[in-house]
């Protein structure tokens, strides 16, 4: 007989937080928003921690390389979408990994006996105007010199001449040892009026280049999410169809974390894919989902998922609940899964982080998701509104909108995400529309973070674990919801009331 789950399916809108006592040292500046991204032993740190608890949805209209760069610079993570060819997704990953965040691994390298024509070709391919001249033309070869686009001109120089004739040789080139910090590197760039400072290991092999042009930019983003080589981190969505080919290609491009992307992740397909990735590439973290209950969480955690994504049918553009009658209010789903996560951690000694995906309509909904125990959130509509998202920005009578479409819409036609049988979407599970344009991600996200920090201050917590451990939530009635909004006050200008 069918089982009826006790309790109704609730959304974030039905809850509010009660303020806790705020101590004097609990201020926005003291708040640490770092949070675990992947499975780890209880009591130890997660091998990858987000510096801020935001990830962007695995969607065509959301997760571009530009958005990935902006979000990682603000401490979060993008999962580049897989609703494109493997080659296209690999190129997206490379674009993020090659982004210059302080110390960069040189991608424009030549040998001293390469011709100037070859140098010009390499520069055109990478779009960079400074090349390292190494003994073997690799990014980690012995550094012999630097050559820039200012050192040669196709009309003035014979392009068949070797690079060695135009480079600044290492003897005349200021360089640094690899134990130097970014601020020391920046001090040298300014003190010695350099554009680029090569950083070498003890044997004179090139490790990094530090560019002056990155200086101001880097100061703006103290909490960037970077890997050991100081490159921005990036994730990628994968599916249960072509992972055997897609995963190795993404790894080769330097992806940091993968996430199986399905509208319903409680499936044997997903557990098979998780086992395959874990067997062949145990070093890469891979998340699973989406699920809406503790049973499904435990299934994926036991199958090896490094984090589990929660949410079915709550997305702004999602009509899965209308079409299939499948789903659960996002707050109920998160609460159920979080309880299973804690039981799993107690039983196995492994903490598997939980991501609340979709249905976050207001900034304070993020705070509620974190207070209810989610380790981080994933958002689509929210990020689709910014300049860095790929949707076109279009004028309307009242301002601007950005295009935003669901992965289950005919436009995205992501049959890999929606198991309707075969390579077709028989019916739509998402809509194709617009979201109000919201400008630059850096400014928008700063505002959201400021609100979350203010909520945490009111709740007397300076860390996310403390926030959820001490959170007191209350259900709201229709009437009290009305009371929450501005009322009684007239918002129109007097002139319009005439
Ligand atoms: P939202 O943040 O409310 O925009 O929700 C984003 C989430 O919606 C995605 O991360 C994904 O789980 C889900 N999604 C994406 N496309 C569709 C659809 O077409 N139904 N749903």
From TrEMBL:
Superkingdom, taxonomy of origin: Bacteria
Signal peptide: none
Gene3D superfamilies the UniProt entry points to: Aldolase class I
Residues annotated as binding NAD(+): 261-263, 311-313
Coiled coil segments of this chain: none
Every CBS domain range: 103-163
Database matches in Pfam families: CBS, IMPDH
Residues that, per the record, bind K(+): 313, 315, 318
Molecular function GO labels: IMP dehydrogenase activity; metal ion binding
Protein name per the record: IMP dehydrogenase
Active site (UniProt): 318 (thioimidate intermediate), 417 (proton acceptor)
InterPro entries for the chain: Aldolase_TIM, CBS_dom, CBS_dom_sf, IMP_DH, IMP_DH_GMPRt
A GO BP annotation: GTP biosynthetic process
Keyword annotations of the record: CBS domain, Metal-binding, NAD, Oxidoreductase, Potassium, Purine salvage
Annotated EC: 1.1.1.205
Family statement: Belongs to the IMPDH/GMPR family.
């Amino acid at each position: 007989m069918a089982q009826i789950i006790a309790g109704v399916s609730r959304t974030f809108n039905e809850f509010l937080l009660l303020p806790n006592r705020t101590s004097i040292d609990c201020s926005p500046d003291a708040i640490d928003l770092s949070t675990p991204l992947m499975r780890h032993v209880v009591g130890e740190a997660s091998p990858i921690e987000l510096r801020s608890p935001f990830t962007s949805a695995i969607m065509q209209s959301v997760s571009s390389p530009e958005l990935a760069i902006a979000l990682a610079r603000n401490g979060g993570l993008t999962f580049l979408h897989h609703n494109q060819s493997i080659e296209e997704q690999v190129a997206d990953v490379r674009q993020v990994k090659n982004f210059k965040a302080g110390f960069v691994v040189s991608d424009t390298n030549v040998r001293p006996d390469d011709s100037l024509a070859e140098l010009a070709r390499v520069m055109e391919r990478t779009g960079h105007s400074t090349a390292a001249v190494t003994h073997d033309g690799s990014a980690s070869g012995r550094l012999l010199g630097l050559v820039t686009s200012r050192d040669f001109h196709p009309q003035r120089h014979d392009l068949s001449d070797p690079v060695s004739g135009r480079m600044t040789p290492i003897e005349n080139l200021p360089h640094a040892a690899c134990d130097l910090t970014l601020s020391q590197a920046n001090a040298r760039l300014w003190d010695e009026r350099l554009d680029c400072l090569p950083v070498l290991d003890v044997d004179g092999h090139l490790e990094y280049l530090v560019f002056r042009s990155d200086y101001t930019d880097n100061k703006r983003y103290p909490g960037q999410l970077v890997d050991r080589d100081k490159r921005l981190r990036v994730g990628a969505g994968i599916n249960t169809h072509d992972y055997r080919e897609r995963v190795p290609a993404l790894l080769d491009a330097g992806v940091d974390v993968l996430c199986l992307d399905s509208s319903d992740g409680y499936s044997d397909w997903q557990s098979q894919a998780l086992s395959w990735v874990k067997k062949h590439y145990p070093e890469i973290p891979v998340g699973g989902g989406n699920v809406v209950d503790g049973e499904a969480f435990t299934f994926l955690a036991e199958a090896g998922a490094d984090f589990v994504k929660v949410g079915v049918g709550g997305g702004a553009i999602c009509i899965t609940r209308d079409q299939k009658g499948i789903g659960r209010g996002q707050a109920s789903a998160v609460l159920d899964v979080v309880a299973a996560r804690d039981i799993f951690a107690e039983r196995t000694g492994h903490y598997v982080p939980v991501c609340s995906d979709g249905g976050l309509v207001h900034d304070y909904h993020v705070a509620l998701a974190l207070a209810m125990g989610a380790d981080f959130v994933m958002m689509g509509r929210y990020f689709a509104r910014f300049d860095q998202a790929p949707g076109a920005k279009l004028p309307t009578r009242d301002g601007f909108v950005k295009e935003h479409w669901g992965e289950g819409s005919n436009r995205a036609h992501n049959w890999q995400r929606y198991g309707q049988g075969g390579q077709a979407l028989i019916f739509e599970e998402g809509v194709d529309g617009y979201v109000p344009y919201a400008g630059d991600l850096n400014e928008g996200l700063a505002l959201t973070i400021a609100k979350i920090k203010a909520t945490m201050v009111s709740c007397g917590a300076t860390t996310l674990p403390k926030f959820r451990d001490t959170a007191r939530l209350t259900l709201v009635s229709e009437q009290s919801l009305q009371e929450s909004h501005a009322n009684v006050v007239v918002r129109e200008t007097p002139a319009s009331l005439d």
